[in-house]
Structure formats: C-alpha cells, structure tokens
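In response to reviewer comment 3 from the previous cycle, which asked for concrete evidence that the modeling workflow produces usable outputs, we include below a single protein chain processed end to end. The sequence was submitted unchanged, and the resulting structure tokens are shown without manual editing.
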Amino acid sequence: MSDLTRLSAAALADALTSGQASSVEATQAHLDRIAAVDGAVHAFLHVSTDEALATAADVDARRAAGEELHALAGVPIAVKDVVVTQGLPTTAGSKILEGWVPPYDATLVERIKAAGLPILGKTNMDEFAMGSSTEHSAYGNTHNPWDLDRIPGGSGGGSAAAVAAYEAPLAIGTDTGGSIRQPAAVTGTVGVKPTYGGVSRYGLIALASSLDQAGPVTRTVLDSALLHELIGGHDPRDSTSIDEPLPDLVGAARLGANGDLTGVRVGVITELQGEGYQAGVQARFDESLELLRSAGAEIVEVSCPHFEYALAAYYLILPAEASSNLAKFDGMRFGLRVVPEDHPTAERVMSATRGQGFGDEVKRRIILGTYALSAGYYDAYYGSAQKVRTLIQRDFAAAFEKADVLVSPTAPTTAFKLGEKLDDPLAMYLNDVATIPANLAGVPGLSLPSGLSDDGLPVGFQVLAPAKADDRLYRVGAALEALLENTWGGPLLGRAPELETR
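The workflow returned the following structure tokens.
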C-alpha cells in the first residue's frame, strides 16, 4: 500500500479490516515516522514502542481468528500527557510529576485499550494545560509542522502537531478554554470539544474542573466522530458525566459529507469576528460562509453581547479552580520532593517543592486564583465572574433559538513565532477569545481547517452547537470539509511543507 501514515483513521481502519495491511505494519510505520521527524517537532514526551506493538499484534491475532472488533481496532493513537495511563509516565508537562507512572487508567484510556487501539505515546503540552502555545512545557517547546519556528497552539500542541506531522492518525486532547480547538486551527487539523460531561473526566489531571473536557484531534471530521463515539458516553465514576447515550455522531458526519445543508440555520456571532482578527483569517471565514450558503444553509447574524467579558471571567474562574486542584502537588504523597538542608519542616518542604516543581505560568495562575478566592475579594472577583458566566450561557440560549449552530473563526490569528508572546501573558491569553465562551457554557465546539491565510499558514473555522447536540457539529463540519476539499482539490494538510527526516 501507499504510505500508511498518510491515510485517515477511517481509511486505515478499512485497510486493516480488508487485510490490505496489518496493525503491526501500521503501528510500526507511525513509530518510524516519529523516529524520523519528532526530533524536529517534539510532539511526544514518551513513546511506548513495545506496548504499542504488543497491542497491534494482539489485534492482528484476534482479527485473524475471526473475532468481531471495534471499527478503529488496530489504528494507532497518541494521548495528551494530562491523561493518566497505567504503566506509562504521566507528567502533565510539569517537573513536579517527572517520572510519575500512574497505577490506573483514565476511563477514556480504558475504552481506547478495550477497543484495541495501540497507544503510541504521550504528547507534549503546556504545564498542567496552562497556555496557548506549548511553550510552558517543562520539557521543551513543540514546533508547528507547517513552520518549525512557530507555535503549534496550546495547551495541547503536542497532540495537534503529532497528527499534523503524520506521526499519529488520531490523538486525544483536552480543552479547558480552547486547548483542542486552537491548536487544531493553527496546525490545519480537526479538533472537537464535546459537550461538558459528554466524555468522562475520570483520570484527567484536573486544571479547572468545571471547564475541562477531553476530546479528539484528527485529520478529518469523520475520524473525530469515530473517536468521539469510542471515548464518549456515561461514566459512573465521573459525577459530572451525562447519563444519556451519545447522539449518532458518525451518522451525522456521513450525512454532512454529501454537502447538503438545506434548512440548517447557521448563526454568525457578531462579537467573534472583525476588529482584532487577522485579515487572512477573516477572509477564509467569509469564504467558508459562502460555501455553507451554497450548500443550502441559511446564514443569520446573532449577537452575544456578554462574550465581550468571557475572557476576563475565564481568567478568574480558571485560576481559582486551578489553585484548589493543584494544592495536592505538595511533595508529600507523590511526584517531586525537594528537601531544604536546614530545618526541613513539612511547610518548608512543600514550599521548596512547589517553588522548583512549578513553572512561571502555573505560579502566576495559582497566585491569581488564590487572591480571587481570598476573604474580601471572593464576591468582587470570583463571584462576579460566575455571574458573567451565567449571562454568557443565556446569550448562547438566545442565539440557539435563532440558529441551529453558531460559527466564528477559531482563533484571531495564525500561528505566531516561538517566543513572540512568551513574555506578554495578556497577549497570549487573547488567542483563546473565540474558544473560551463554549467552555464557560459547557456547549460543544469543533474546529476544522478553512484554508491558508496570506502568510501561508492554516486558519480554523469554529462550529458551536447546543449542549448534547454534538451531532450538529459533525454534520455541518463534514459538509464544509467536503466543500472546501472540492475547492482545494484535496485535504489542506496535503499542502503543508514536508518535514525533513533524519
């Protein structure tokens, strides 16, 4: 066959089922690709060669014996390093967890393993998922495969870069304020944040418990639907898990691929376009709207006035929850322990451990969150932010009365240069201005590539749907994907520069 690493997950699954290739061959091909290019990309923190090949061999044996297998059985996958994996290191991109090997699997990892997907390894990320560029990893930057001098987005830049560089056909990311969708936008991949509670958070190292959500990172909308259906669904171990079956996501993606959106109302969010958005980003967005219109969609303008305050509310709610969630990393029970030479009391051990184990961005957000929750400031800051969150949820409810889905550019700019915004936290935070509202409201969102900006870099198109209506994302996303690929003559990633191999 042609290069197995260039196939979509769905196409690779078909090749495995038909016997055109084996899982061992597919897994080895991706491991070889990692060995060839990851020195330049640095998408992975840990590569699990032996474990992946063992899983692949087991799937091949079961398939040869005639056993009925999951549709994605044997298709390799990468997992963001904030998701715990039994027997494989999990660091959350932090020195404070360096070398930690969890004794259990996250629920979504259990489901991946049960379905027979070989786990290639753990991907790089901003420390504890705090960042928009993967420059805050304690283990070095990940580079964008489109331009190695640019960021791959964050916090899940490793997962997006691995998929964009053909190191993995599928990856798991997590999205607290855009950490799946924004990296997808700047790497030309597809990223989905499911409805809050639609995918179990059991086994995710928490950043902000009311915002975090795991989801798929892929190269096609159909691949995301296949992975979403695999990892999604109710989990009694997660108290926030939705106790309802998922809608037919794969069916919606296949329906959308015919390019017909007759009767679908698409709401364009006034507040998430125009001023502050790179000219090429806005141009690709406008072109995509015209394609949706040509497919029969009704385009309507909607206003969500309180989105203006989403960024400020988010950066009070997230640090407050993070300061609480990260309190357990104290050098006492697991992970790094730094013992001062003189008078090593428990308090001084905790202080020394957290001082050396946490990076600057994590410390910044812990301090901010602790301040926002402190006596005398709780109502003024955290309480007020929660009120704004309610207003944003009401904006969504009103908008979805006028439209079936809402759309916007995923990020205001294309990938910026490494180091360009590292010393300016406020400029970095603005990268998430279009993605944050979905997390505050718990609604699902999808980003797919909508072309290249004038600088030759990928642009993302975001689709948002009401809570528990994730299938709408896949129908509209697959339709736009098909329309765009007809315009381009193939997938966007086919136009990316080839990485030099060793």
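The longest helix spans residues 379-402. We consider this sufficient to address the reviewer's concern, and the full set will be provided in the supplementary archive.
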